[in-house]
Structures are given as structure tokens and as C-alpha cells.
Amino acid sequence: MTKNDIIKAAFRVWGRELYQSTSLTTLARELGVSKPAIYRHFQDKQALLNAMHETFFDEYAAFIKPWYERAVAAQDAVESLFIMMRTIVDYYARNVDAFLFSLIQVYGDPIVGARDMTAHLNRRGVDLSSLSRFEADTQTYPSMVQLILATLTFIMAHFHKHEHTLDDHPSEERIRYIIALTEKKVADGLGFNKEMVEAIDYEGLENRIAGTVHDLEEDCLLRAVAGAVAEAGPWNASMEMVARRSGLSKSSLYSHFKNKQDMLRQLFLTEFDRIVRFADLGKQHSTVPEEQLYLVIIAMADYLRSRPEILVAIDWIRTRRLDLGHIAVSSRIYQVITDIQGLGSTGEQDPSGSVSAWIPQWILFLIVNTLMRRPAGMAFSELPNSSIRVLFKFIVSGIKGCTL
After folding, report:
1. 176-212 pLDDT, tens per residue?
2. Are residues 97 and 233 in the same domain?
């Protein structure tokens, strides 16, 4: 057994549970060895995780570097970005273990993770920031590069969730399909008319719903739950932490929640209901489909900007699987968005082949991603509406709807 054997097995074994557990005992059982046999190669679990980081970046950079050089040399801005997008989708479609590792271990912290990725790739001769030279305004946030990477991450997650188990591999036909689907979504978004999107009175729409997120009575107990989740994550947030934040005793909490799972479930169900409520209220301020969708997006963004602990809690379930029973997140958001004329019958398919129920989830994913990856040092509430407008234009018209 070599160090590389252990590293490869760790990607496979810990990835199955999305790194909820990184047990050396489980890893040793998978390899058919004792834990001391692993310790002969790695001093401790952190040393193994560090080696996994190096292996991931070595293999990832080696795969994309030839195509990165072609992208940098390309004169056409769109083609440059698409070369890299196709390459990254190709790599992650073929390497689910690497995808899961990057999603959770590298991007686990939205801001630190992005810096970590950039630094590691730079040391290996891949400077993705150089592609921003193709954008007209490199100070605009979010950048096209960020929105493209977020979109392919979302599509990859759905692809691997619906296509196959973690122990088999997608066919070449399905890999070509997912590359084409990602390219179409990035290029065209939802296919809205660019001129109509540009003609929207964004400031007027924003003023119509300004302040409405503060009209809903707060549930102080659930806010304490959200604060604990934001602080420690859903796996490590405890009833004791919630009791301390709420001023209640742990025994008193059991009169509100059956157990920790029920506590988390109530939190997420309540918050998704609130998000959908504000989205629906926002939509009612216009009868124009393009305006309605922007009102939905700005209403959801407003709510999350005003509730940072809720935003961070939702970000946890954006990247991690939680055993909370059936939470019909998509059905709630799906109805609000697909009721908008032209979105309920797009006929588009998701990576599993079903009709476009994934579009509302993609929209929420991009909203959360944009807020969580805001510029360093900026509070959630400080993210300007201009950033939400950039996000909206990308969603409805793709990069064709944004100025490069």
C-alpha cells in the first residue's frame, strides 16, 4: 500500500458521505488495513487532508493547463471563456471524487476557498484571473468568470446527483450532453430579449419593494437556531448552543423541537417559506414577465441580505447533504417562478432528463453564491443592487446579455 493508494481511497470513501465524516477507521476498513498502517504514511488525519489538497490541485491543474493556454491566446472574449468552461465541466464530469472534494473541502468557506483555489492554481501556472481581461469592467461584481463557474458548479452537482452512483462513471455521450447544456445556459440564460431587459427601470422596481423584508414578525427562537448553524454548521450546531443564544434551558427547547433534526428542519422550512412569500409579494408589483422575475430575485436577495445568519445557514445546505427528511424546496420556489409567463413551459431539461424544475433552484443558487462570495470586507447588507442587476442579466440572457 502506497501513500497514493491511501489518498485515492480517502477521496472515494469520504466523498461518499460528502465529508460529513473523515474517519480514519472507515478509511482503514475500506483499504483492508489497520489504522497504524495509515499512520506509517501520514502523521495524522490533517496531514492526509493536506496531501489530498496537493493531489487535487496537481491533477486539476495538469488537466486544464493546456486548454487554459489556448484560452489565454484566444482573441475572442466569449470563446476564451467557453474554452475554460468546457474543460472544467469535462474534468468534473469524469472525476466526481474531485468535484465533491473541491465543492466541500476547497470551497467550504466561500471567500477563503476562492482565494485558496486561486493561489494553488497560480503556483501551478494557471492564472484564471487573467481571463478577466476580456471583461469590459473588471471592477464589476459579480464577474462573468464567477457567474460561469457558479453555473457549471450547480449543473455538475445535479448531473452527479441524478446521473449515476459515486462508484460508476458517466458515458461519453452524457459528458458531451452536459458540456453542451452548460454552454447553452451560460450563453443564453433563460433566453430573454436583451433589449427588453436593458429597458427595465431597475431603480423603480427596487423602490417598490424597499423595506418590505422588515415587515414580517421575527421568530426569535428560530433566529437563535440560525445563528448556531451559521456559527458552527448544521452538523456541529447543538441544542446547547441554541439554548445559550435563546436564553432558554436545553430541556425547554424540547417543548419546541423533538430533537436536533426537527430543529434544523423547522428552521429551513420556515425560512424557505419566508423567502418564497417575499418573492411572491415582489412579483405582484408588475405584470411584465421580465420585471416580475427581477422583482422575485431582488426580493429574495433583500431578505437574505437583511438576515445574514439565515443566508449562511442556507449556504450550508447549498453544498452539503443534510438528513432532514423530505423538504420540498424546489416545489415552493418553482411555483413562484414558473407562474411567470414564459417560464413555466420552457421545455428545457435538467441533467436527469426531467423538465426544467431545476431553473428555480439554479436562480436561488446564484443568489446565495453572489451574496456569499461578495468582495472581502463587505457586509452582506452593503452589497449594492447593481450587483443583483448584473446577476439578473446573466440569468435571463447569459453572457450575451452582459457587456464583455
Report:
1. 999 999 999 999 898 888 888 889 999 999 998 887 7
2. no
> What's the pTM?
0.85
Residue 272 and residue 331 in contact, taking contact as beta carbons nearer than 8 Å: no
Cis peptide before 384 (omega within 30 of 0): no
How far apart CA 17 and CA 280 sit, in angstroms, is 35
Domain extent at residue 226: 194-401
**394 and 316 together in one domain:** yes
Nearest-angstrom CA–CA distance, 351 and 155: 7
Chain CA centroid to CA 400, Å = 22
Grid cell listed for 121:
492554481
356-378, pLDDT tens digit by residue?
567 888 898 899 989 988 888 88
Please check whether residues 181 and 198 belong to one and the same domain: no
- Compute the radius of gyration of the chain from its Cα atoms: 22
Does 200 lie in the same domain as 66? no
d(CA 315, CA 312): 5
**381 DSSP 8-state letter:** G
Question: Angle between the 260-283 and 202-209 helix axes, to the nearest 10 degrees?
Answer: 130
Domain-ending residue, one of 141, 156, 188:
188
